[in-house]
């Protein structure tokens, strides 16, 4: 029902939320020795999520999870680059907001149709 009603936007909203959590975890561990920064390849993860919703149970739930390669490695083994994480977080927040606005507009349209307006 979710896919028929919202198209890919329902899955995209969930995935954007998960990505925000991964990026926030990277930022929180910026000073943790040995911490390896992760990210979500949005396209690959969305394809896997949609395949799962369509009944393809072979799709990997961890699809799209990638390790970041730092441009300047640190001596303590931490791969978090704070400026990169902040930019990724801001871009993801904007995309999340846009997707949420679309879903809210769709819900508003359906609500008005059900009320007969």
Cα-to-Cα separation, first versus last residue: 24 Å
Shape, principal axes of CA atoms: elongated
Q: What is the H/E order?
A: HHEHEH
Q: What is the overall pLDDT average?
A: 88
The computed structural class is mainly alpha
Number of domains: 2
Number of strands: 2
Main sheet makeup: 2 strands, antiparallel
Number of helices: 4
* Poorly predicted spans: none
Report the C-alpha radius of gyration, rounded: 18 Å
Strand content: 5-15%
Q: Fraction of residues in helices?
A: 55-70%
Placed side by side, the strands forming the largest sheet appear as 1-2
What keyword list fits this structure?
single chain; 117 residues; mainly alpha; 2 domains; two-stranded antiparallel sheet; 2 strands; 5% strand
In brief, what are we looking at here?
By secondary structure, the chain is mainly α. It has four helices and two strands, in the order H-H-E-H-E-H.
Detailed description of the structure:
It is a single chain. The chain is mostly helical and 117 residues long. The protein has 2 domains: 29-80, no CATH class; 81-117. It has helices at residues 2-6, 9-28, 42-53, 82-115, and strands at residues 38-40, 65-67. Strands 1-2 form a two-stranded antiparallel ribbon. The longest helix has 34 residues, at 82-115. The radius of gyration is 18 Å and the shape is elongated.
List the topology elements.
Elements: H1 2-6, H2 9-28, E1 38-40, H3 42-53, E2 65-67, H4 82-115
Antiparallel strand pairs: 1-2
């Amino acid at each position: 029902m979710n896919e028929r009603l919202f198209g890919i936007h329902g899955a995209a909203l969930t995935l954007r939320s998960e990505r925000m959590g991964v990026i926030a975890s990277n930022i929180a561990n910026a000073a943790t020795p040995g911490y390896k920064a992760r990210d979500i390849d949005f396209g690959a993860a969305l394809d896997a999520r949609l395949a799962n919703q369509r009944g393809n149970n072979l799709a990997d739930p961890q699809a799209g999870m990638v390790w970041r390669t730092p441009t300047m490695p640190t001596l303590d083994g931490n791969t978090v680059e704070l400026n990169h994480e902040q930019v990724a977080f801001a871009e993801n927040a904007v995309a999340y907001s846009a997707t949420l606005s679309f879903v809210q507009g769709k819900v508003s349209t359906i609500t008005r149709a059900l009320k007969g307006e």
